[in-house]
Amino acid sequence: MASFALLGSGEFEPWTEPVDRWLLEHGTGDGRIVVLPTASAPEGDEVFEGWASMGLRHYEAAGVAAEVVALRTRADAERPELFERFRGASAVFFSGGNPAYLAATLAGTPAWACIVDEMGRGMAYAGCSAGVACLGESAPDSAVRDPLHADGSLLQPGLGVFPHTFLMPHWDALDGYVPGLQALIRRSVPADRRLVTIDEHTAMLGDGSIWTVEGSGRVGVIRGDDARAFASGEAFEEPLTGSGARDVGAATEGAT
Question: Looking at domain 4-251, which of 3.60.20.10, 3.40.50.880, 3.30.70.3450, 3.40.50.1370 is its CATH number?
Fold first, then answer.
């Protein structure tokens, strides 16, 4: 059974301590959390290493074994000496950056195939910001400077872990970044698709079908005019794949 921790923002901060505990309780493996700042690679080595160091400090303070895999490019995703380090880990954690870059870097690579295989074994998947937004049918390209006039370039192919679904972290902050961005995203999602929104400093934790909410904000599920929202401590059922994501290999077949 797959386990997912999907964070709207604020990875490696004190509020995530319950999320860390949940990951280790639900992930099967040797107790390690493998940290991948891949989505931040376009911002340069300093930013990449900054996220890597932040993750290692956070888990060291919590007494959790962690290591960073320096996967920056598709060429890195072909290197067995990197992706074989996922083997046996209890969880993999993708931190923030550009969702479209992350999806394009992983899709169809041996590294992503290895991650999917390990998730089938029991490794938990955790992601924050880009590590969440890459998982749906499409992934937003945060390098687009004017998303309100992007002429369709804002959304690029996602990894398809959750088909027919668009995932949007930072939901409660989007209009503060770009006024009107929430409305644009809602218009961009076809009526027969689902939009899952996660506020900042908020996480949805579950097996792909049954979810609970942790943090200070809300998780939303929007399909057309139907919108539901769930606060911290609330549980809800929302199968993000036809099988409830219990067969990860089948759910990600098109992406691998």
Answer: 3.40.50.880
> Tokens 């049954």 — which residue?
210
What global pTM score does this model have? 0.92
The residue whose two tokens read 């938990």 is 124
In whole angstroms, what is the distance from residue 225 CA to residue 110 CA? 40
**Residue 19 pLDDT:** 97
- Arithmetic mean of pLDDT over the chain: 92
